[in-house]
Amino acid sequence: MYNAYSAGTPSGALSMRRNLADELLQAVNAPGTELAGAALVIARIEFPRLDPEPYLLRLDAMGEAARTAIANHSEATGDHTLVGAIKSINRYLFDELGFEGNREKYDDPRNSCLNEVLDRRTGIPITLSAVYLEVARRAGVAMEGVNFPRHFLIRGTDKSSQGRRGLILDPFHGGMILSEQKCRVLLQQHVGPEVSFSRSLLAPATRAEIVIRMLLNLKRLYVNMRSFPQARDVIELLVAMTPSALSELRDRGLLAYHLNDVTGALRDLQTYLKLASMSELDKDERQEHEQIWEHVKTLRRRVAALN
Fold this sequence. Notes:
Elements: H1 4-7, H2 10-28, H3 36-43, H4 53-77, H5 82-96, E1 100-101, H6 114-120, E2 122-123, H7 125-138, E3 143-146, E4 153-157, E5 166-170, E6 176-178, H8 180-190, E7 204-205, H9 207-224, H10 228-241, H11 246-258, H12 262-276, H13 283-306
Parallel strand pairs: 1-2
Antiparallel strand pairs: 3-4, 3-7, 4-5, 5-6
Helix pairs in contact: 2-3, 2-10, 4-5, 4-7, 9-10, 10-11, 11-12, 12-13
């Protein structure tokens, strides 16, 4: 697989990170609710030469096919409800096209890349949800993301019901409709008893929140794989999305340290220490600061040795 770091230069990698950050912000701030554009920018961390246009066209075709499936179901049964539309989309995506959750290789970074999810028809909850949201939107069915802990979900709005009730769906499990009790069980399975269920956990997620969660998933995977250049690219996007997040500034500096980027590491770690010291620190945070301060002193010695 082609990777930007196998042939590029440090300045080229920096330019790529800045370009991706600009493109991601443009996609996130664009009018409407489209998610695919931002998701395909993220995928370029793994696939730098990715052309998004064929995938956007494929989603258009999938949306039209889903619209036709919904219309055929309504005509045949007289069912114009949200449940009927969901069943039609589920049959199309999961039965006809064969999309499914990737349980065997859940931590494969390709599961976080929308192009690969569309090509391989498998992914993790948030990317399968992205496919579902984009197809449903194109088919004229109102859907929104739900930032449920550890397992992303989506909600369809039933316009025909009094109070516009929503139905919670799990695209990772074939678009299954979840009751509140099933959501409680799902929370226990993925988080455990330390987090109690609240309906606030089912609040709608903004496009920016969905994109940030995608990035955090990918960051975790790359760090665990010790793929530090790619992890640094992800953090560059996270810093662009959340400039006030000190934890991302810290992590970008630590990755620069591991990659022997003395200038970048010193810049970020010194800024982090300065900003973080303005608030009261607990014991663990003080220990972390001491460790980062040791890194800064090491970096300063390296700079002095070069002068």
